[in-house]
Amino acid sequence: MFKLLIGIGNPGRKYNNTRHNIGWEVIDAFNKIIESENVYKNKEYEISKGIYNYLEIYTMKPLTYVNNSGLPLKKVIKKLNLKIEEVLIFVDDINLPLGITRLKTNGSAGGHNGLKSIFNEMQTQNIARLRLGVGVKDIYNHELIPFVLGKFKKTEYKYVDEMIKESLLALDNIFQNGIVKAMESTNRKSR
């Protein structure tokens, strides 16, 4: 079962509500539900802890910027004495339409530098993740970096809010029924 939930994102106010930080938004929403308390914070990561379904759950935000997400994760796994199988990542995905979520237990980084960093540091791609669709770049006709660092449009917020709710439902489904069953129901949904 998952003991550490990590949201990929960038530190700093200017990155609030950007596509790259949707993983942090899911972590923030989950932290409210479990009424977590901050237990560790340094220049590399922030960790909170709470109880969910009678289980002690840690949440983590790397503070090293998206492209270096693997470095603090490796340290936190060691610090908390966890296995990589006990980690679930929440990550933005430009290959999915806005609002679509996909739960995976392995696979490539799909061009995401945060996942590349994690896979490199952990020496495996077999890490569970919930991919959060932030809109397909080609539809928006933008360059990649300005696109992922850009804020959601006002007309997109309803889909973002729904996606956060869907992510929390998927997480609950994982804890209730296991990841295989959760994948079946989460991955068949479309907007």
Comma- or semicolon-separated keywords:
single chain, 191 residues, alpha/beta, Rossmann fold, seven-stranded mixed sheet, 7 helices, 7 strands
In what order do the strands lie side by side in the largest sheet? 2-3-4-1-5-7-6
From the spread of the alpha carbons, the general shape counts as: globular
Number of helices, counting only DSSP H or I runs of 4 residues or more: 7
Name the poorly predicted regions. none
The beta-strand count equals 7
Share in helix: 25-40%
**Which class do the helix and strand fractions yield?**
alpha/beta
Number of domains: 1
Distance between the termini: 28 Å
CATH topology: Rossmann fold
Tell me about the largest β-sheet.
7 strands, mixed
Q: Overall pLDDT, averaged?
A: 94
CATH class: Alpha Beta
The value of Rg in angstroms is 15 Å
Please state roughly what percent of the residues sit in beta strands, choosing from under 5%, 5-15%, 15-25%, 25-35%, 35-45% or over 45%.
15-25%
State the fourth-level CATH superfamily: Peptidyl-tRNA hydrolase
Q: Name the helix and strand elements from N-terminus to C-terminus, one letter apiece.
A: EHEEEHEEHEHHHH
Structural topology:
Elements: E1 4-7, H1 22-34, E2 37-41, E3 45-52, E4 55-62, H2 70-80, E5 87-93, E6 101-104, H3 113-122, E7 128-133, H4 137-140, H5 144-148, H6 157-177, H7 179-188
Parallel strand pairs: 1-4, 1-5, 5-7
Antiparallel strand pairs: 2-3, 3-4, 6-7
